[in-house]
Amino acid sequence: MFDIQEELKKLPGRPGVYIMHDENDHIIYVGKAVSLKNRVRQYFQNSRNKGVKIEQMVTHIRRFEYIVTDSELEALVLECNLIKEHRPKYNTMLMDDKTYPFIKVTTGEAFPRVMLSRRMLKDKAKYFGPYTSSQAVRDTIELIHKLYHLRSCSRNLPRDIGKERPCLNYHIKQCDAPCQGYISQEEYGKAVTEVIHFLNGNYDVILRELEDKMNAASEALEFERAIEYRELLGSVRKVAQKQKITDSSGEDRDVLAVASEEEDAVVQVFFIRGGRLIGRDHFYLRILKGESDQEILNSFILQYYAGTPYIPGELMLQTEVEDREVLEEWLASKRGQKVSIKIPKKGTKEKLVELARENAGMVLSKDKERLKREEGRTIGAVKEIAALLGMESISRMEAYDISNTNGFESVGSMVVYERGRPKRNDYRKFKIRGIKGADDYGSMREVLTRRFTHGIREREENKKLGKFDAFPDLILMDGGKGQVNVALQVLDELHLEIPVCGMVKDDHHRTRGLYYHNVEIPVDKSSEAFRLITRIQDEAHRFAIEYHRQLRGKGQVHSILDDIDGIGPARRKALMRRYLSLEDIKKASVEELADIPSMNEKAAESVYKFFH
User: Fold this and answer.
1) Residue 11 domain-assigned?
2) What tens digit of pLDDT does each residue of 109-132 get?
3) Residue at 568 is within a domain
4) 253 and 312 Cβ atoms separated by less than 8 Å
5) Whether 445 and 588 share a structural domain
6) E strand residue ranges, 314-408
């Protein structure tokens, strides 16, 4: 149980981003803070005037999490990324989708230029950023011109060398005039390499050089010159707050780091998609005393990516792992494309890995006991279920349910749990198309056939991010022998081998046990396995009911009686007043139906023929 008051005490006085979740674990608000401790606490203090929207939001908060950053600037960019990704209910959404500036080095040219860019194109240039201060970017570009004398013109070089006179920048010593051939392409290339090192975060040399020049100018009483260097120093330091939160390559990668203590460890995973950090997750592990970070990461990678449907093209780790080449080969075989494991040693990427390690350490030190309880509720419960069924291991489970009301059109739900936790992005809902009436078995057959047919097609087409290509280790059916047999028949027809288990309920509609291999297996009601099965069963039912209610609200579902010729609103109401369910109507004879007020023999025959 997440105790908000206890968790507030653990908040660090560091800059970062906080994420608020509601009772359904949906993200409802994302915010940034100079001090997480001070900012998050304000939401739960009665004395503060928070405004109507925030007051309303606070009533829905059931838990929160946070990501520590090195600066408020980084927190700002991360907040922007997370809001775009999750579109939380209580965040103000920017309709103009403001962009942040990049520094672009046109490395595809013979004599590259450095410029400000608002977009990151798929060209041969190198991009750095994004940055939150356009003025700081302009100051940095100006500094680069002063220090490295790169050109800023748009002349086509080397084609146009010597065709025009050098521009003003040459005369004020901010360009070495490659347009006149005053500097060779090789020497110019060396300056470009130094610029790229600078933009990658190697500022120490430049800062020392500027400080030396500032001090020398001051000692020579050249105070205007000293002020100029001082201002440039300030600009460099401002830009030096590198945005680790966004990767200029625009690639997909996971960043993994571990923190361990005695027999406990936490692995933090940052998910970077399209160059943006869109989220993170942390995982608690029980380890052997003295186990190294390399061994922990090696084991984690094998376990985690064995059950994850999407694998990015690159993993960035804090330390080398054993059998790196073998791991890369294994990951590539699962992904269908090359996967690289990298251990960055300097620059932005190294700082991002360090940020992940720092967050892992913070989670371990402050949330160890809560994580142990959470692990018991999730991964521990899954292990218990696997043991009950005699399975070696389970990662992904899918549960299915059908919902219909008094003949209303049926809908199906598919909920997904990975490592004992709901994976809501993978939930799917189905509007039954080929089955009329309350035929749960027929509806379930249609749902499963559609789900796995889609999955097989996506796998054959090798879709990178398909909706159905990830198959479960275990299928859970809401019911016993009948529903299990339907699932097994569908899988057999599609030539799939996936274990199927029924979640059996007692006469009071409470979970009783599991039906597996034609045997009902009792489950200890005090166990975490039982609690997880109940949660999954309730979630599948809730998701189906929610979809059914949504369709009814839109007027898309109607009574099956409306489909019978000669039965209008009055006769439908009369039938429903006389009979409590569709089953009772189906059992009625023509004479019994004709005996109902507002019905006649022709209408009664129409009803009887429809059901028979």
Assistant:
1) yes
2) 999 999 998 777 778 888 876 565
3) yes
4) yes
5) no
6) 314-317, 340-342, 396-403
